[in-house]
């Protein structure tokens, strides 16, 4: 018997193969082994606007004027952001910007400094 991975949704150990799919009998989740490894790899790497891989603690530069939601302030192009922290979600950079405070940024609007 092959050593199959646990269900990514409910972590059940009772998964089985059905053709090219893996199936969890407890929650009914179906997935392929390839999609699971691709999803994990995609979540691990966050890239800036130029395609450079970002890491926790990096310094980045804003490449576009960004309006601050709920305020009339604007983060200007060229603003350096130090000591970033990568998080999951739509806004994947958590940081503090001098004069603005704690913010979340999208990686597509920054470049590695």
TrEMBL record:
- Kindly give the SUPFAM superfamilies that the UniProt entry links to this protein: Prokaryotic SH3-related domain, Zinc beta-ribbon
Superkingdom of this protein's organism: Bacteria
What residue stretches are annotated with the Protein YjdM C-terminal domain? 46-113
Q: What InterPro entries has UniProt attached to this entry?
A: YjdM, YjdM_C, YjdM_N
Return the Pfam families for the record: YjdM, Zn_Ribbon_YjdM
Give the similarity note.
Answer: Belongs to the YjdM family.
The name this protein carries in UniProt is Zinc ribbon domain-containing protein YjdM
Originating species: Halalkalibacter alkalisediminis
């Amino acid at each position: 018997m092959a050593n199959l991975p646990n269900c990514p949704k409910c972590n059940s150990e009772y998964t089985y193969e059905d053709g090219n799919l893996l199936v969890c009998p407890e929650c009914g989740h179906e997935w392929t082994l390839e999609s699971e490894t691709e999803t994990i790899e995609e979540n691990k790497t966050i890239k800036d606007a130029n395609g450079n891989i970002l890491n926790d603690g990096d310094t980045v530069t804003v490449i576009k004027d960004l309006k601050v939601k709920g305020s009339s302030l604007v983060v200007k192009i060229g603003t350096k952001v130090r000591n970033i922290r990568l998080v999951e979600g739509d806004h994947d950079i958590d940081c503090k910007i001098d004069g603005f405070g704690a913010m979340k940024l999208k990686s597509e609007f920054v470049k590695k400094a």
